Amino acid sequence: MKGMVEMFEFLDDPAIRDQNEHRGGRLLADHFREPFGYRTRRSKGSDDWLITYTISGEGVFKIGTDIRPCSAGDVVMLPPGTPHLYATQEGGIWDFVWVHVVPLPHWSGLLQLPRTFGGLIYSHVGEEQTRRRMLNAFERAIHDSRELKSFAAELAMTAVEEILLIVNQQHRQTSKPAMDPRVSEVLHALMHRMSESHSVAALAQAVNLSPSRLAHMFKEQVGDSIIDTLNKIRLRQAARLLRFTSRQVSEVARDVGFQDPFYFTKQFKAFYGMNPSEFRSRNSLAED
């Protein structure tokens, strides 16, 4: 930490000119892989939001007297007008993606996240699947921001919105008590294999728990029983299929795991207050 502080004291030298001030466009994005010695300082901040995501290596942010190291999986967001300095940690290479963006009006709620370390927003992405999705969103923002095709700018902004949604999702998850990984595994199975037949006994065996213990843990952490949760997952997916496709009701029932279309209709009406055909007639976006 001493070497880091000394480095920042040097970088705070007024003789060092501000570098890489962002001037143009509503969105600018890139992928940097920088060795020790790389640094950017903005004494007045920028007029847009800066969002960075570290792929590997380590970087460090300094805002006032606050120092925030960042490593693989870390997202750092800097609001407009925040004086800042960031650099590659000594002895390493910082591999990161970044985007400067002027937010769309409807993003305001996504930017209301807790601020720490001198005003920046920090989030850590732990799950490998979510990391891949985050990096993919940045890569799409970078690619589309350089394209000249129709709607390329809109696609780039959509990718940035996905980044913000992932950050907010991470915040929600870390704000709640951590879900037991065995419960999470069962929930994942229900969501991604809803059309299959599931029993509490088989699910419990798959995660090395007794059926009663799994049922208790699941209800405590998810809020509904395993069967009720599976039922809701199936019915919500059925509603999407009814709205966006022209598949017959019996086909939709089978798609989501109901073998008996009459039982499906009964469950759907109990959940949505109308039968599947009525729901489709009121909500369908599918073309004839």
UniProtKB/TrEMBL annotation:
It comes from Paenibacillus contaminans. Residues 184-282 form the HTH araC/xylS-type domain. It holds the Pfam family AraC_binding. This is AraC family transcriptional regulator. Keywords: DNA-binding, Transcription, Transcription regulation. GO terms for molecular function: DNA-binding transcription factor activity; sequence-specific DNA binding. The keyword Transcription regulation applies. SUPFAM superfamilies: Homeodomain-like (SSF46689), Regulatory protein AraC (SSF51215).
